[in-house]
Design brief:
Layout: H1 9-27, E1 35-38, H2 46-54, E2 59-62, H3 67-75, E3 80-84, E4 95-100, H4 133-148, H5 169-185, H6 200-209, E5 213-214, E6 216-217, E7 225-227, E8 230-231, H7 240-262, E9 269-270, E10 273-274, H8 278-287, H9 299-328, E11 333-335, H10 346-350, E12 353-360, E13 366-374, E14 379-382, E15 388-389, E16 392-395, E17 413-421, E18 425-433, E19 445-446, E20 452-456, E21 460-465, E22 471-476, E23 481-484, E24 486-493, E25 518-519, E26 525-530, E27 534-542, E28 545-552, E29 558-564, E30 575-582, E31 590-594, E32 600-604, E33 624-626, E34 629-633, E35 638-643, E36 647-650, E37 656-664, E38 689-698, H11 700-715, E39 719-724, E40 737-739, E41 749-758, E42 761-768, E43 782-785, E44 795-801, E45 818-819, E46 841-844, E47 849-856
Parallel strand pairs: 1-2, 2-4, 3-6, 5-45
Antiparallel strand pairs: 3-4, 7-8, 9-10, 11-39, 12-18, 12-39, 13-17, 14-15, 14-18, 16-17, 18-40, 19-26, 20-21, 21-22, 22-23, 24-25, 24-30, 26-27, 27-28, 28-29, 29-38, 30-37, 31-32, 31-34, 33-36, 34-35, 35-38, 36-37, 41-42, 42-47, 43-46, 44-47
Helix pairs in contact: 1-8, 7-8, 7-9, 8-9
């Protein structure tokens, strides 16, 4: 069961595809699961329902929902109904029948039979002194009667076993056999209860046969609380380093998959060895578990998840280097420099001349600002055709903040240049160290108090208060939109545990001691660096909190790169760190969050759409999962933040957005981890985190165009590959630039999946990534010719599949449900009409994903 708050939709789809294919290959198509079963994830995403529906599931059962929501649903007999998973796809494409289980994943009280259970077994021998058959039968009938009051039909489901109570099947089935036998014997005395072994899909079939009219849910099940002071909103941020590693691994896997297709089998065996993307694909699938990417595992388990991912990185590095060798004729010694997140790359730091290859996994051309650590002070950069490019050398700001080890001397400078790459392809750049007065490092300028500091590019202007050192305003130069904006870092004080087991913040739970966060510092020390390519303000808030605010040439967003940690331990209290942006926008309690990187949902502070909220935790009860985007707006302006990993976020007051970026806690929250969330990092003093937020200011009607395209680039980040030149290196290469597409796709179309399925077949998913009201142009229907899409592949035919790629779309027939709107009477039972394979043309509607198995000549 993948988590539903922190993974991206890309990773959910990949994980499900892997598992569904395994079931098909192992048991055959007849074993295709019809019901989704998420009995443990801690809150439920609307996008998850949409994805399950598009995979062909008939129903979805889960165990956890907010305790107040459950109480209301039980009273109204509304524990089951239809969940509308999309505001964009035509019903019932994303509709999914959804049921809440009565006891989570546990058996009814009194019916737990296992090693770790305390309930007595059923004794039906009347000669035994421990005879208790009648007691159990009576208790079961009472339990069934009580549960039936919460559900609409005369069918109810009871889960048996539990997460730690399913070790002895013999004991369980021996007692359940007795229970079934003796309960059903009561029918001769007039009992109307019939109990039998069943499955979720059999249960769902009987609900469908009841022909009832069901309610429709349009929002999601976040946030989840199991009691008044226990909101499970801390895990949205827990273990931020692991969350970032998973996000980067996702992007790397897409690159790896694509190059296995574009370069063929030579990607798997070549001068760099033998390897396959399967290693990373499997590690990423496991990492989506609801106690993996969530950060809710013990430290040694988190270490193992990271180790599994690192094995995948090694395999994919080999695949990428073999593929680029084959596609470009590159004879350099290649490396992907996996430690660039801490400014380490042996190639760029030690070589006088090196190459940089930028691979772009998107279907459109991109521009990307390359930043690499260097020891020198002057460099020239040339593209694949030998044309010189502007570059800028800057002193490193985060120098000395990482534990590099005794043997490594960190670089003092960074080289910056803007690269571009064609769709599904790469461009090559040659970097050469220079002597003399060429491209000297841009020196930082220490700002004196009372000055107003301004940085700007063609599109944006940022102003900083010279006295406080904080951002004070932002202006969109294209629209003339001006907005006061103040950004600072704050911390919530974690609740202190005691002998009475008062609820504390932990890996799962967020519960601050007070509702008002404290600033790390009211002021920041400023340095300013300006050059031809980038202008930046460098802020120091404390020895453990720094930030660089950047405006790159041509960029329509401001970049906030922050470095937080090691978080100090003071007074035996944990700290939960946020970044906050305050503006005068009149947002009326509303803000927007994304669902797994796709559709946006509107949130209202201290409000739930389907029940009256009694919020006893004013901060934690307003936190939501932010997979990629958090936004707020009024009539004239929208402020949008795009993240580089999953985080918790909210708008705690009008005109304000906050994101939690780091947590260090000293007490367990009593939800199963059994240890405090106290990551000590490489140096043993506390984990340090480096991350990035993108800030947009634009009129509301143009905001989605900017943030969605930037968000796509954050989710599917391009891959840098570095080459060490030697005497036999050729330049230019046979192909210093390459594109896997004949022509670029429209900006609205995302190549969601491109991977090898078998020797003659590839898996292709295309997505129109804009919602229907996002943008006047980019929300329009698009048609793609798959036959003429690829530059290196000869497409022979294709089959359209369900989203999980385990069933032909034309063979899908889902259960139909009547709802209170009675829309089903007028709608097709099919999700969509499959594409006619003969014309090879594919049409995409807003937010639509279409999945194909494409047959080609040998890959």
């Amino acid at each position: 069961m993948n988590d539903e708050a922190t993974p991206t939709y890309i990773d959910i789809i990949d994980q499900m595809t892997l598992g569904l294919r395994f079931l098909n290959d192992t048991f055959g198509i007849g074993a295709r699961p019809l019901v989704a079963w998420h009995i443990d994830p801690f809150g439920h995403s609307r996008e998850q329902a949409s994805l399950f529906a598009q995979m062909g599931f008939d129903g979805f059962f889960f165990g956890r929902l907010d305790y107040q929501d459950k109480e209301k649903r039980q009273k109204e007999k509304n524990m089951e109904g239809v969940w509308r998973g999309s505001a964009n796809l035509n019903p019932p494409s994303a509709d999914l029948f959804t049921g809440v289980l009565p006891n989570g994943y546990n058996p009814p009280d009194g019916f737990c039979w296992d090693q770790l259970c305390a309930d007595e077994p059923i004794v039906d021998d009347k000669n035994s002194r421990e005879y208790n058959k009648e007691k159990f039968v009576s208790l079961f009938l009472e339990t069934a009667k009580k549960q039936s009051k919460y559900y609409k039909t005369n069918h109810i489901i009871m889960t048996m076993g539990s997460d730690f109570q399913y070790e002895n099947a013999n004991v369980w089935f021996k007692n359940m056999d007795k229970l079934i036998k003796h309960v059903n014997e009561k029918q001769k005395d007039g009992s109307k209860v019939n109990v039998f072994y069943s499955t979720p899909s059999c249960y769902l079939q009987d609900l469908n046969k009841a022909k009832l009219t069901w309610s429709v849910k349009y929002d999601d099940f976040f946030p989840y609380a199991d009691s008044a002071h226990s909101f499970w909103t801390g895990y949205f941020t827990s273990r931020p380093a692991l969350k970032r590693y998973v996000r980067r691994s996702s992007a790397l896997l897409q690159v790896c998959n694509q190059l296995e297709v574009l370069a063929g089998t030579q990607a798997n065996k070549g001068p760099y060895g033998r390897a396959e993307s399967t290693v990373l694909r499997q590690a990423m699938a496991v990492a989506q578990h609801h106690d993996a990417v969530t950060g809710t595992e013990k430290q040694h388990v988190a270490n193992d998840y990271a180790w599994q991912l690192s094995r995948g990185w090694l395999a994919c590095e080999t695949v990428i280097k073999n593929a680029l060798y084959n596609l470009s004729g590159n004879t350099d010694k290649l490396s992907i420099c996996p430690l660039l997140n801490i400014s380490l790359c042996s190639v760029t730091e030690s070589e006088k001349q090196f190459r940089v290859m930028l691979y772009n996994p998107l279907g459109r051309e991109i521009a990307w600002n390359v930043r690499v650590p260097v020891q020198g002070r002057a460099y020239t950069v040339a593209n694949h055709a030998g044309k010189p490019l502007d570059s800028q050398v800057m002193p490193q700001f985060f120098l000395g903040l990482y534990h590099h080890g005794k043997s490594h001397k960190p670089s003092v400078n960074e080289l910056v240049f803007q690269a571009s790459a064609p769709p599904l392809g790469f461009s090559t750049y040659t970097v050469t160290s220079q002597k003399g007065n060429v491209a000297r490092p841009s020196p930082p300028q220490r700002v004196q108090h009372q000055e107003v500091i301004v940085i700007q590019n063609e599109h944006l202007q940022l102003t900083f208060n010279g006295t406080t050192g904080l951002l004070s305003s932002m202006k969109n130069l294209d629209s003339g939109l001006f907005l006061p904006v103040v950004q600072n870092f704050y911390w919530y004080q974690g609740s202190k545990g005691n002998a009475e087991n008062i609820q504390t913040s932990g890996a799962y739970i967020f519960r601050p001691n007070v509702s008002t966060p404290l600033p790390i510092s009211p002021k920041a020390q400023l340095d300013v660096v300006k050059g031809r390519l980038v202008e930046e303000v460098r802020q120091t808030f404390s020895p453990w909190c720094q930030q660089v605010v950047r405006l790159y040439q041509g960029s329509r967003h401001a970049e906030f790169e922050w470095h937080v940690g090691s978080i100090p331990i003071v007074d035996h209290l944990g700290r939960e760190i946020i970044t906050r942006f305050d503006t005068p926008l009149r947002t009326k309690g509303l803000f927007l969050t994304d669902a797994n990187g796709r559709e946006m949902l509107t949130r209202r502070r201290n409000f739930r759409p389907t029940w009256k909220l009694n919020n006893s935790e004013p901060v934690a009860g307003n936190y939501y999962p932010i997979t990629s985007t958090l936004a707020m707006k009024d009539e004239k302006a929208q402020v949008t933040l795009v993240t580089d990993r999953s985080q918790g976020g909210s708008s705690m007051k009008d005109g304000s957005l906050e994101l939690m970026i780091h947590r260090r806690l000293l007490f367990d929250d009593f939800r199963g981890v059994g240890e405090a969330l106290n990551e000590t990092g490489a140096n043993g003093q506390g984990l340090t985190i480096r991350g990035r937020h993108l800030l947009f200011l634009a009129p509301p009607d143009s905001s989605a165009r900017l943030s969605r395209l930037a968000g796509e680039l954050q989710l599917s980040e391009p891959q840098l590959v570095f080459g060490t030149l030697h005497k036999k290196s050729r330049h230019p290469y046979k192909d210093g630039e390459f594109s896997g597409l004949r022509v670029a796709l429209p900006a609205s179309v995302h190549v969601l999946s491109l991977s090898r399925w078998d020797a003659h077949t590839l898996l292709l998913r295309l997505e129109l990534q804009f919602e229907k009201h996002d943008d006047r142009n980019l929300s329009r229907t698009v048609t793609i010719n798959i036959a003429r899409m690829f530059s290196t592949l000869d497409v022979e035919s294709f089959k359209e599949m369900t989203l999980g790629a385990n069933l032909r779309l034309k063979d899908l027939h889902r259960l139909s449900w009547d709802t209170v709107e009675r829309e089903n009477e007028h709608r097709s039972k099919a999700m969509q009409e499959p594409t006619d394979p003969s014309d090879m043309m594919v049409t995409l509607q807003p937010m639509q994903i279409r999945t194909f198995l494409v047959r080609t000549k040998a890959l």
